[in-house]
Amino acid sequence: MARITYPGDVLVDQLAEFLDDGYLICAHCGQRAKPHMMYSAVAMSGDPGAALTGRAPERHPRYQLSVVVCAGCGSESLFVRRGGVEQGAFTLTDWHRRLYPVGRATRSFPNTTEGHVKAYHEACAVLELSPAASACMSRRCLQGILAEQGYRQKNLVQQIDAVLREPDNRKSLPASVHDAVDAIRHFGNFGAHPITDVTTLQLIEVEAGEADWCIDVVEELMDHYYERPAKLQAKRAAANAKLQSGGKPFLKS
């Protein structure tokens, strides 16, 4: 592959669909930044018999492979697109997709229960291959998180109702997380497919973006219930250590 340095090459513009106006959302680290550099090559396929039979050649499909290097973490992502080429430029793109890495970038949740993190990683890994399977794993993760927080109703919809109606202000969700969790009940036509202990792992068709939203909600809940309290506890411990060294009373819980 020929080395192409970003910016300033037409092939970068041809990859605009992937880069969102020049920015790449890295599937390794999740950062949104302009690529550090890009390597790209184009291969052509067509009708090998056209020249022998005199048939007029049709628009030959071409395949562009591009390796994009994230400016944030330095990791590489591989993209492929298929389309026609006119005067050296891609036209009428048929499809394009990321080949590597597969799935959505995952975040680190060191203080979250291992089983929830495993289900979360599985939901991210299959997001592009099967949104329905990804949403299935997200539902499993949501059900486990809510059960661990004391919402042990017999199905996920009832668990969500319970957490949204939580009367204890100390346990209630922040407004933004509350609204995001509420939306989950309307994804994948849950009303027509009640999510019970038996059916939680069934595949239910979801609309574009719904499986991705489910993962967002899982991340928000793991942050809210596990990561933020752990960080606050660590800060409190550090503050109390300083107070103790100065002979002052500890912070109140």
What does this structure look like?
With 253 residues, the chain is α+β, with helices and mostly antiparallel strands. It contains eight helices and seven strands; from the N terminus they run βααβββαβββααααα. The protein has two domains: 2-45 and 60-100; 114-240, no CATH class. The protein is 39% helix and 19% strand. The model is unreliable at 1-14 and 48-58 (pLDDT under 50).
Describe this protein with a few key phrases.
8 helices; alpha+beta; 2 domains; five-stranded antiparallel β-sheet; flat; disordered N terminus; two-stranded antiparallel ribbon
Secondary-structure blueprint of this entry?
Blueprint: E1 2-4, H1 10-14, H2 16-19, E2 24-25, E3 32-33, E4 37-44, H3 50-53, E5 61-69, E6 76-86, E7 89-100, H4 114-125, H5 131-148, H6 156-164, H7 175-184, H8 210-245
Antiparallel strand pairs: 1-4, 2-3, 4-5, 5-6, 6-7
